[in-house]
Amino acid sequence: MKKLTTAAALAFVVALTTLQVSARSIISNPTPLRGAQDDKQKDDKAKEETDAYTAWYNATRETNKDWSKIMELGKAYMAKYPQGQWAKYIQPSIAQARNAMLTKAAQDKNVAEIIRLGKEAAAEDQSAEVDYYTFIVGQIGTLELFAQPPSFAHAADATDLANKSIALIEGGKLPKGANKNVLLAYLNSVDAVVEKNNKNTDKAIAYYQKAASYDPTNPQYSLQCGSLHQQKYAAAATKFQAIPDTDREAEADKMKPEVKAVLDEVNREADAVIQCWARFVALTQDKKEWDGTRAQVQKVLTELYSFRHNGSSEGLKELIERSRSASSPPSSSTASH
């Protein structure tokens, strides 16, 4: 290779030195380049958040609001920007949208949607858990369990949430404006009607008795309790009538133990019907809406009372009056409003 001239060599050294200095500058001080990238990323993130907010805002400004869309967009924003600059406006809108959807589902009698939205709301706001649970149970009761004809399509949800509500109420939580005893009675009646449908008669009776203990002035619980005991009485009476006459008509001290056991069951269930229905009659004497049902009940009640009192119905009126005087609402110390 030819030797470089001094001038050319000097120029080459100067050029090389300049490149090395530039390279060192870039390597040792890269901030300007990374700062530009960071600014761009910040701008992109800010734009993304603004776009997410704008989509939510536009949905809230629509004349015919799509609440499911508002809730979806609100959730999307909060999931990505929980501390975002618009979070304090968007977070409350999610519950507002869900409540609007719950109202619409109730108007449409869409029980499955009521359950879905209510459970979701309770999970997100545990301070209002009992409010949502009791709302769901009330809707299932109104739209299905106590409808005519009844439906038990969501009976499992009804009993699950009724029992959760009972536990929460007994633990000190109560929906706003609710009467504690009346609500507990209703929740137990929900359990009762489901158990009755499941042919678990004894469990149903126990739930109706508990309901009546919370709300003793509600005649429905005494009516249903008596009806279930009447079913058990009819079954026991049928069993007793199937026993041969010689065994069935034997003197009490000569009666076979298995026969006496059936007779005791007949008498026990008859007495239970009498107690429940005497209370029902007492509670409804001044209520015209119960006139038809009361007349039918009183006829059977009189027959059963006579059966248990050697053919005499004397004393029944006194029993009804005693039941009437005992039918007082809970004291202020046990009732919450």
Supply the number of helical segments.
14
Count of DSSP strands: 0
Largest sheet: none
State the end-to-end distance: 107 Å
Q: Tell me the structural class.
A: mainly alpha
β-sheet strand percentage: under 5%
Mean pLDDT reading: 87
Determine Rg (CA atoms, Å). Answer: 38 Å
Order of helices and strands: HHHHHHHHHHHHHH
Fraction of residues in helices?
Answer: over 70%
Write structural notes for this entry.
This protein is mainly α and 337 residues long. The protein has a domain at 216-330. 75% of the residues lie in helices and 0% in strands. It has helices at residues 6-28, 31-61, 67-80, 87-107, 111-124, 129-145, 155-170, 180-197, 201-214, 219-241, 245-248, 257-284, 291-308, 316-326. α7 (155-170) packs antiparallel against α8 (180-197). The chain starts with 5 loop residues before the first helix and ends in an 11-residue tail after the last helix.
What topology does this entry show?
Blueprint: H1 6-28, H2 31-61, H3 67-80, H4 87-107, H5 111-124, H6 129-145, H7 155-170, H8 180-197, H9 201-214, H10 219-241, H11 245-248, H12 257-284, H13 291-308, H14 316-326
Helix pairs in contact: 2-3, 3-4, 4-5, 5-6, 6-7, 6-8, 7-8, 8-9, 9-10, 10-12, 12-13, 12-14
Output the keywords:
single chain, 337 residues, mainly alpha, 14 helices, disordered N terminus
Question: Short description, anyone?
Answer:
By secondary structure, the chain is mainly α. The protein contains 14 helices and no strands. It has a domain at 216-330.
